[in-house]
Amino acid sequence: MKSFDEIYGKIRAGSMKTAAVAAAGDDAVLSAVVKAKEIGICDSILVGDGEKIREIAGHEGLDVSGFRVIEEKDPKKAALVAASLVRNGEAHMLMKGLVDTASLLKAVLDKENGLRKGDLISHVGVFEIKGYDRLLVVTDAAFTIAPTLKEKKAILENAVDFMHSLGVDVPKVAPVCAVEVVNEAMPATLDASMLSKMNERGQIKGCIVDGPLALDNAISIEAAEHKGIKGEVAGRADILLMPNIEAGNVLYKAFTYTADCRLGAILLGAKAPVILTSRADSFESKVNSMALAAMQAMAQEGVF
């Protein structure tokens, strides 16, 4: 799949999944939840202050009468309840409402009712950029601050597994650095080289990894050819594996605010997808993020 429209179509062809929304009393989140159900992306269970949810819905002209509402006024407890709904199979994904990120993640990692399965949790941002013939994934822009080589391998594998759910059988991965040559003064280039070698030897499967690559050589065939850089990934990367959270966050926001694009983002590595949107995210990106989570949930169930 190369666009969000294709993702929407694939989801509608399957059975509708359900999101558990933690602290759902938020106008932007409720708008996205209603729209997602309206267009057949996913249903939702709303956990939060029922009176506030209905008040906001009335003010915004939203019909929430068809949603199950679970009463829990405390946002932190609402996060725990929502996570337990996913863990128990009543919902297929967890979505952040009007609760702080730390509390939501604490619920995800809760030993009794959470969604942790032992894998590294990482963030993927998916961009449909005008002029590109494919979706671009940026990881990790929001979760792992300064990943070690081992953590980069896990972040990479999370993203590859996710790309498989989008129908990209052998995604091309570019470990992005400032330069495209190994330089011992730049540790990220050493990690990139080792990840490439691990892929070559079968320690990282289901993808093609080639790096280090500077950003221009990862996404522009013209730039790669101009510099004489050859290989299957050069200029054709599907996944941009960033060296640290600063670089990832800067690139994510640069794409968001300067490119003509559509985007969505989720957390991977838990027992179920986690939709971790912020109030700064556009309405469309919230709905897109729900679509990405639904795709991942379908893939985890072996739907395709």
Summarize the structure.
The chain has 11 helices and 12 strands. The protein is an alpha/beta fold and 304 residues long.
Rg calc: 19 Å
Number of strands: 12
The topology string of helices and strands comes to HEHEHEHEHEEHEHEEHHEHEEH
Distance between the termini: 13 Å
Averaged pLDDT, please?
Answer: 94
What share of the residues does DSSP label as strand, in percent?
15-25%
- From the 3D structure, determine the CATH topology of the largest domain: Rossmann fold
**Unreliable segments (pLDDT under 50, ≥5 consecutive)?**
none
Tally of discrete structural domains: 2
What is the overall silhouette? elongated
Amount of helix: 40-55%
Largest sheet at a glance? 7 strands, mixed
Textual characterization of the structure:
The protein is of the alpha/beta class and 304 residues long. It folds into 2 domains: 4-117 and 270-298, 3-Layer(aba) Sandwich (Rossmann fold); 122-261, Isopropylmalate Dehydrogenase (3-Layer(aba) Sandwich). Helix content is 42%, strand content 18%. The chain contains 11 helices and 12 strands. The chain is elongated. InterPro entries: P_Ac_Bu_trans, Phos_Acetyltrans/Butyryltrans, Phosphate_butyryltransferase, PTA_PTB. Pfam families: PTA_PTB.
Which tags fit this structure?
single chain; 304 residues; alpha/beta; Rossmann fold; Isopropylmalate Dehydrogenase; 2 domains; seven-stranded mixed beta sheet; five-stranded parallel beta sheet; 12 strands; 42% helix; elongated
Tell me the layout of helices and strands:
Blueprint: H1 4-12, E1 17-22, H2 27-38, E2 42-48, H3 50-60, E3 68-71, H4 75-87, E4 93-96, H5 101-109, E5 122-129, E6 136-139, H6 149-165, E7 172-177, H7 187-200, E8 208-209, E9 213-214, H8 215-219, H9 221-226, E10 239-241, H10 245-258, E11 261-268, E12 274-275, H11 283-300
Parallel strand pairs: 1-2, 1-4, 2-3, 4-12, 6-10, 7-8, 7-9, 7-10
Antiparallel strand pairs: 5-6, 5-11
Helix pairs in contact: 1-11, 2-11, 4-5
